[in-house]
């Protein structure tokens, strides 16, 4: 698959994280000639927290992860992830497949099952050929390496056109703490826990409750603020492991929280930049709404509107469709108080196009790759910013033919 | 523009309606070489009722119509509609344009302004060149004819690929009452008053309150149950005129109500069949939901999902995406109780694909033009049926280039 035109120049040079080792193999779950299973082994004492899809039809591995999140146990832990098959809507067979994988992984790695977190991503409703995965566990174990994170990022890709990674370092009391994360996702990306799969690792020490709070709060401001197609996955999973190998406790440390949120935002933006068929990265900024909830409604109405997204694909500064989306959002709005901008270009105010507006100037702006659409509502202090991409022919091609 | 493959074979032979005359002209509002303004003149005593978009950014003509609906006055009335420009988000100029049109129309036709209902459909945010319309009013008046309804249906088209009409007759107390309606709409079609413009005429006699109640209730079961792209127009308008020329009062008559709803459903389905880029007409039936509201949430989540709609375009029986859409809908759902069918083909039950399911059989079904997707939720008695179309390359083409 051709790499997204919005992809970063290269996968970032990610630091190793004390207490974490990675491996990836080709198990042939669905794809041929590529890696499709990744293992992350986590040192004794690692804290694991997670955020999951809110879908009512979530997958067997998600249900299993949820039941284990926050549980007791301080021994070694592991994340095992396959691409090619999501093990979602697979009936009783789904839970049995998770159990079979956990059992063999536990035996092969000597890790208790309650500390094994598995994810599956790919096609829905086909039985997961779990024996292809378990047959590779010895090979995975023998391949574990502290610098295998890029290989892990590649193994979890499905329709992604580039692997996604991000890192941050924070100095706490003169000591350095490192965070590294990887993500996959490019379709079925919507507000309720947008990204399909995200794994973040740090050598910081932090307890479960504090780590879970950071993750949940950060998700609301990052992954829950991106949308590619308004569709919500059955498999969305964000797992974070804090190994404590740095010896630095970051509980309550604001810089760590900020660095973690920055890393989550970076990964969230990379997911949008790999939105299926995307050629434009679009930030939608709403201010002056009656409240934050209304601002988010307007932002999402714009970001999810097929008519807005196709206009962006056509490099058409069609601000009438922005007005339409504001109107349909369900948020309080006064047509004559709206101030609409493309980048710094004032487009509309006082219920009509601005006297200073130049269609030629706006059309030139729309040819850019990174765009900002902002709307001031003129009603209150409510704010929201979300990120999306355009809707192109390529999205149709990818999704009309995904299974064939 | 190529006619939709889902279009009816021909425009139906619509009956004349006593008390209604039509005319259409080419005013050059935006388009060249086609009619773009229609006038319907309504006899003295005609009852007019209307249903309008719920958009917070609705257009100047919609606001004007709303202010006049249900008002006093029993003299002649008229509907005047232009395509090419929606007169939406046009600031103070918008209301001034409506006033100018009403003033000249009143003077030319001798109809009081309170009985003049205007609509505009087309591009948003550009000043309506109302003088091009008023310059044609004498010509419109002189062209009025009882059999001009097909011409009227053509004059209100924008991205429509075929004119839409429907008729019904009802026998009440041995006398015949006739109803005829026309509609336009193919994009920006969403649940809140789906069709952009609909005009219905009958020679029945009925008071305003009774007629308005029939329209509002019928809209909820017809136009509010269709969706092409989840976008809501700023201009949606449904106007109905009952001239009373038949001398038959239909207040409280169940057969008239049923015939009217059938006509509205026919027009609503024609709008979906002209959905921008549509190649498949899809009925989504939900039953067994906890309540009707939940059923509608599930139906709309399926009907609006870009992943479901692109799969249908690709003739892919991708039932996993149906499961995904049920899960994201926000409705109560039990994954293991869902029963999913494509037409009569049982696809999934007991939380997994049915043992009897044949992908080849389902793939053959998906090659049809009219498709039914049904989901039994297994929870209660909630039901909902909605109609949509597939999402194709052509939708992108039409909407990425609409203004150029």
CATH superfamily of the largest domain in chain A: L-amino peptidase D-ALA esterase/amidase
CATH hierarchy: architecture of the largest domain in chain A: 4-Layer Sandwich
Task: Give the uncertain stretches of chain A in residue-range form.
Answer: 190-195
Biggest interface pair, residues each?
Answer: A-B, 71 and 71 residues
Helix content range of chain A: 25-40%
Termini separation of chain A: 14 Å
The pLDDT mean of chain A sits at 89
Q: What is the radius of gyration of chain A computed over CA atoms, rounded to a whole number of angstroms?
A: 22 Å
How many distinct helices of chain A?
A: 12
Tell me the strand percentage band of chain A.
25-35%
CATH class of the largest domain in chain A: Alpha Beta
Q: Strand tally of chain A, please?
A: 15
Q: What is the CATH topology of the largest domain in chain A?
A: L-amino peptidase D-ALA esterase/amidase
In the sheet with the most strands of chain A, the strands line up as 13-12-11-14-10-15
Largest sheet of chain A: 6 strands, mixed
Order of helices and strands of chain A: EEEHEHEHHHEEEHEHEHHHEEEHEEH
Question: Your description of this structure?
Answer:
- The structure is a homodimer of 404-residue chains.
- Chain A is an alpha+beta fold and 404 residues long.
- The first copy, chain A, has 2 domains: 20-273, L-amino peptidase D-ALA esterase/amidase; 281-400, ArgJ beta chain, C-terminal domain (Ubiquitin-like (UB roll), Roll), CATH 3.10.20.340.
- Helix content of chain A is 32%, strand content 25%.
- Chain A has 12 helices and 15 strands.
- Chain A has helices at 60-68, 91-109, 130-134, 137-143, 149-155, 208-221, 254-273, 292-304, 306-313, 319-328, 359-366, 393-400; strands at 20-25, 37-42, 47-52, 77-85, 116-123, 164-172, 175-184, 197-202, 237-242, 281-289, 339-342, 345-349, 352-353, 370-376, 382-389.
- In chain A, α2 (91-109) links the parallel β4 and β5.
- Chain A is globular, with a radius of gyration of 22 Å.
- At the A-B interface, α2, α9, α10, β13 and α12 of A face α2, α9, α10, β14 and α12 of B.
């Amino acid at each position: 698959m051709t790499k997204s035109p919005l992809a970063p120049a290269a996968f970032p040079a990610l630091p190793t994280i004390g207490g974490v080792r990675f491996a990836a193999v080709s198990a042939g779950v669905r794809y041929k000639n590529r890696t499709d299973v990744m293992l992350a082994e986590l040192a004794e004492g690692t804290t694991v927290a997670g955020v999951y899809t809110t879908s009512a039809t979530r997958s067997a591995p998600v249900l299993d992860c949820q039941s284990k999140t926050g549980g007791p146990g301080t021994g070694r832990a592991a994340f095992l992830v396959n691409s090619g098959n999501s093990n979602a809507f697979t009936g009783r067979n789904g839970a049995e497949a998770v159990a079979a994988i956990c059992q063999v992984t536990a035996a092969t790695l000597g890790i208790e099952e309650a500390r094994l977190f598995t994810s599956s991503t790919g096609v829905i409703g086909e039985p997961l050929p779990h024996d292809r995965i378990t047959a590779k566990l010895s090979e995975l174990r023998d391949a574990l390496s502290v610098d295998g994170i890029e290989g892990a990022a590649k193994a979890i890709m499905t329709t992604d056109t580039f692997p996604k990674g991000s890192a941050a370092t924070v100095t706490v009391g003169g000591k350095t703490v490192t965070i590294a994360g990887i993500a996959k996702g490019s379709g079925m990306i919507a507000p309720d826990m947008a990204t399909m799969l995200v794994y973040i690792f740090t050598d910081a020490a932090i307890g479960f409750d504090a780590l879970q709070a950071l993750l949940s709060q950060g998700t609301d401001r990052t992954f829950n603020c991106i949308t590619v197609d308004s569709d919500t996955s059955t498999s969305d999973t964000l797992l974070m492991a804090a190994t404590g190998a740095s010896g630095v406790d970051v509980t309550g440390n604001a810089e760590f929280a900020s660095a973690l949120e920055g890393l989550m935002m970076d990964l969230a933006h990379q997911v949008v930049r790999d939105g299926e068929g995307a050629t434009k990265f679009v930030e939608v900024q709403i201010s002056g709404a009656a409240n934050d909830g209304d601002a988010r409604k307007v932002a999402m109405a714009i970001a999810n509107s097929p008519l807005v997204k196709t206009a962006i694909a056509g490099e058409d500064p069609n601000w009438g469709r922005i007005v339409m989306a504001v109107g349909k959002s369900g948020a309080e709005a006064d047509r004559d108080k709206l101030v609409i901008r493309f980048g710094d270009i004032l487009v509309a105010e006082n219920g009509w196009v601005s006297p200073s507006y130049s269609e030629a100037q706006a059309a030139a702006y729309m040819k850019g790759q990174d765009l900002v659409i902002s709307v001031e509502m003129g009603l209150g202090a409510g704010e929201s910013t979300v990120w999306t991409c355009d809707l192109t022919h390529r999205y149709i091609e990818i999704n009309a033919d995904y299974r064939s």
